[in-house]
């Protein structure tokens, strides 16, 4: 007599597979990820909690206590009293030209070192890339002297005849420090574009500038969009340069203008938290809208070339 062996129920097999996958390494990995998320979220949630809490309640109960009431008075107060719309506008004056100039200059350099063969193309690329390794604090003393002594003859660019305390000065320093990274990323992308396209355009009579503008840049739209997202975030979040190279508080971008919320004898940290959260809204919105380009920009230099 033939004996038949019954197979276990499918749910039993699935349960066994799931149980087998619960390895100590996987548990440790998930615990580490949860801890990392908590480390990043706790300060953000604490800032939101502090911004929603009235300063009177914090003064009576202390910061590390349960709030008796929560409202949006700190947000409305810092929006009007700190004139945040004006500082948003100051930031746009710096960020938009900075991003455009950086992309134009970096794309020109990347085009020259990738689409044409000449003796010093690799050296030029290394020089621009090495600029990213220079800490800003190293050059602040000579740069400060230059900004106080280089004359600017055009009144529509500088109202005091100098680079110091002017929008053009902040724009230029951002372009100088960001063009190296942008050149490195765009050059890696342009290496994927065959040189036969450039050679064919040269045979047809187009000059180098025409090829760069009409042929190469349209092919680099994904890379340019990704870099624009990254550059906007980098320049917008800058605090150091505007704090050092601008003395007029009403000209500073919004990140440096938050320093104006500090008083000589008392600082309302509840309003500072509200102002910091309001200042963080534009980069967050841009990341949400252009997150695909942002992630692509982070991996662009590693996946292209």
3D structure, described in words:
This protein is mainly alpha-helical and 305 residues long. It has two domains: 16-75; 84-303, MetI-like fold (Orthogonal Bundle), CATH 1.10.3720.10. 70% of the residues lie in helices and 0% in strands. It is built from 16 helices and no strands. It has helices at 10-21, 24-52, 55-61, 73-81, 84-115, 121-130, 140-149, 167-190, 195-203, 208-219, 221-236, 240-245, 254-257, 269-279, 281-289, 291-303. The chain is globular.
Please tag this protein with its features.
305 residues; mainly alpha; MetI-like fold; 16 helices; globular
- As a percent range, the share of helical residues equals 55-70%
**What is the general shape?**
globular
Structural class: mainly alpha
Average pLDDT value? 84
**Domains (count):** 2
- The name CATH uses for the topology of the largest domain is MetI-like fold
The separation of the N and C termini measures 68 Å
Provide the gyration radius in Å: 27 Å
Instruction: Determine the CATH superfamily of the largest domain.
Output: MetI-like
Question: Largest beta sheet, briefly?
Answer: none
Low-confidence stretches: none
Number of helices: 16
- Estimate the strand proportion: under 5%
Instruction: Label the CATH architecture of the largest domain.
Output: Orthogonal Bundle
The top level CATH class name of the largest domain: Mainly Alpha
In total, how many beta strands? 0
């Amino acid at each position: 007599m033939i004996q038949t062996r019954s197979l276990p129920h499918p749910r039993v097999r699935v349960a066994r597979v799931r149980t087998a996958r619960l390895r100590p390494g996987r548990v440790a990995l998930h615990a580490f990820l949860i801890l990392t998320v908590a480390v990043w979220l706790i300060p953000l949630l604490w800032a939101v909690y502090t911004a929603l809490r009235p300063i009177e309640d914090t003064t009576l109960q202390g910061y590390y206590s349960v709030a008796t009431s929560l409202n949006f008075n700190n947000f409305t107060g810092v929006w009007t009293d700190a004139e945040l719309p004006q500082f948003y506008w100051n930031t746009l004056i710096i960020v938009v030209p900075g991003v455009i100039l950086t992309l134009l200059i970096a794309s020109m350099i990347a085009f020259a070192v990738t689409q044409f063969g000449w003796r010093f193309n690799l050296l030029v690329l290394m020089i621009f890339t090495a600029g990213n390794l220079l800490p800003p604090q190293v050059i602040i003393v000579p740069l400060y002297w230059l900004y106080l002594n280089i004359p600017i003859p055009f009144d529509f660019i500088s109202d005091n005849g100098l680079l110091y305390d002017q929008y053009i000065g902040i724009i230029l320093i951002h372009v100088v420090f960001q063009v190296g990274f942008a050149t490195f990323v765009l050059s890696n992308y342009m290496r994927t574009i065959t040189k036969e396209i450039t050679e064919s355009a040269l045979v047809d009579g187009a000059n180098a500038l025409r090829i760069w503008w009409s042929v190469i840049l349209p092919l680099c739209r994904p890379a340019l969009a990704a870099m624009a997202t990254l550059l906007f975030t980098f320049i917008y979040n800058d605090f150091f340069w505007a704090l050092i190279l601008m003395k007029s508080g009403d000209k500073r971008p919004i990140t440096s203008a938050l320093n104006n919320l500090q008083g000589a004898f008392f600082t309302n940290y509840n309003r500072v938290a509200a102002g910091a959260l309001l200042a963080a809204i534009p980069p967050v919105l841009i990341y949400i809208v252009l997150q695909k380009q942002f992630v692509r920009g982070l991996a662009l230099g590693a996946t292209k070339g």
